[in-house]
Amino acid sequence: MVGLKPPEVPPTAAVKFFSAGTAACIADLCTFPLDTAKVRLQIQGEVRIPRSTNTVEYRGVLGTLSTMVRTEGPRSLYSGLVAGLQRQMSFASIRIGLYDSVKQLYTPKGAESTGLLARLLAGCTTGAVAVTCAQPTDVVKVRFQALGALPESNRRYSGTVDAYRTIAREEGVRGLWRGTLPNIARNSIINCGELVTYDLIKDTLLRAQLMTDNVPCHFVAAFGAGFCATVVASPVDVVKTRYMNASPGQYRNVPSCLLALLLQDGIAGLYKGFVPSFLRLGSWNVVMFISYEQLQRVVMLARSAPP
After folding, report:
1. Domain edges within the chain
2. Is the pTM of this model over 0.90?
3. pLDDT per residue over 74-86, tens digit each?
């Protein structure tokens, strides 16, 4: 057995809620530079450093990371981390921690197992609710990650709290929920790609007795979930990132942002930053799901331990 044994008593919704937020923060700490590289590659061509009009600032994942370290320093890799952790504590707690509870609500009474439709509905529901609650933190995170691609004089925010205040003052409270609709679409898709795929792969491995309910099983299921989520969500993710990072008035709405992207970069533009997206989502899912499963077991063991 690799890792802690499954608890005899199933984890409560509160335990799952806490474990999901904590596990997502651990995963963010491990993979945040890849997320920053993904954002820089996705907005490339839209934000240009004025060295020459034809300069391509970033080339590939490693090239992006090395360029950032060389020109902005190592701290730039974690620009926006505070907002990112704030986002995960509110966002992941809802979309991941409440998934099983919502899944049971969609499962017909008396059913022996949960069907695919119930899982998909649960993924869409928790993903949409989580985005609605945590959108301001995502807007600030993306703005900070894109900040280093601008000249020093054009950087708008001095810190996380200043970013919230400045956006609310200059763009109105609605500015903090900028890009909510594409983000709901993205995270509903990602939630289905991640949670449903993880759920199905894990169930299949356990039912076929190919693996036991431990870390190797969680690793395989999480890796598959990360790849599936990246493939289906990358186009929405690119549009979401550009729209949320745009200055006021740059795009009239989400469709105009999508149209501008297609006219400028073609269909391939929808998969800008795919490699860092997969590296980030794949590694993020592995770290998060393994941490999530183990944290639930740690908490349940602590609760059941004699005083």
Report:
1. 11-48+55-78+280-300, 80-178, 184-271
2. no
3. 888 888 788 788 8
